[in-house]
Amino acid sequence: MAATSPRPLGSLSLFTSAVRGWWKAFGYMSEHRLRTYHLAGPAAILAIAVAGLSLTGWLTTTIRDGLDRGLIAIGLDLNALAASEEAWWTDTLLWGASRLDWVLEWGVALLVLWLKVKVTKYLLLTLMAPFMSALAGRVRQLETGSSLPLTTGQLLRDLMRGLRTAASLLAAELVLTLALSLTGLLLTVFAAPLAILLSPVLLTLSGLVGAYFYGAAIFDAVHEQSGMDWKTSIRQGWRDRFSLLGIGTVFSLLIAVPFIGVFLAAFLGPMPCTVAAARLTFTRTP
């Protein structure tokens, strides 16, 4: 019978234990011949890359069209202003609108990139959820001698659970991240000196939010092997939040690497992190 390790709340050692657990997971997977689970990473990346081509175009077009309609509504239609023969101020408006259009162009590009990183992270988790759950079950068997039966129906249920969990966590992360961004914007406008002082705090909080929710998704695959439903898993995750943050921080640092972060995260993130989370959760049978 699997048991959860007793872990005191508020202990920073849980964070460092989770990070060390990720590092040790590579040796553990090699020792127990679990390295084939790494093949799930390339498969997920291929699926995400194909879907990402359409996603980028759709996001860019949708956001850009919405902003263009907003500019037209307030009288800053570039085409209409360029064709106008009215007073001198038309040229001023045209110049201002063109600068605004340039800012919006880059703003849309950055927003799409930010959304893609967030969505890609959870797409990766959703696609790999059945494999993460299967790996967690294998670790549970090695650590405790017990496991849940693996069937095609169970794999499909794991995928649907991963989709539901990822959608819930993505929505929560976006809301909290946007709230922190709005707080920073309001401070910049109305209290610039305070914004400068608090900007490191806001950036740190934003990073911790992302790391926590990634850790929650990883631990959900492990908690499933303990028989928890996804809501109970999320509540349990909060009680083990320092372990979640440790696991999530590893992934956040991997995906933040310029240009190759997504690939590194796919190969070095979900499976070793799952092993680390499972070993933190399950104890050996005496």
What key phrases describe this protein's structure?
286 residues; mainly alpha; 0% strand; globular; disordered N terminus
Could you state the oligomeric state of the chains shown?
A: single chain
Total count of helical runs of at least 4 residues? 10
The largest pleated sheet is described as: none
Number of domains: 1
The helical percent reads over 70%
- Rounded mean pLDDT score: 76
How far is it from the N-terminal to the C-terminal residue, by CA?
11 Å
Residues in β-strands, percent: under 5%
Q: What does this protein structure show overall?
A:
With 286 residues, the chain is an all-alpha fold. It has one domain (12-281). Helix content is 81%, strand content 0%. The chain has helices at residues 12-31, 40-73, 78-83, 89-144, 152-190, 192-224, 230-239, 241-255, 261-268, 270-281. α2 (40-73) packs antiparallel against α4. The longest helix is centred in the middle third of the chain and has 56 residues, at 89-144. The chain is globular. The model is unreliable at 1-9 (pLDDT under 50).
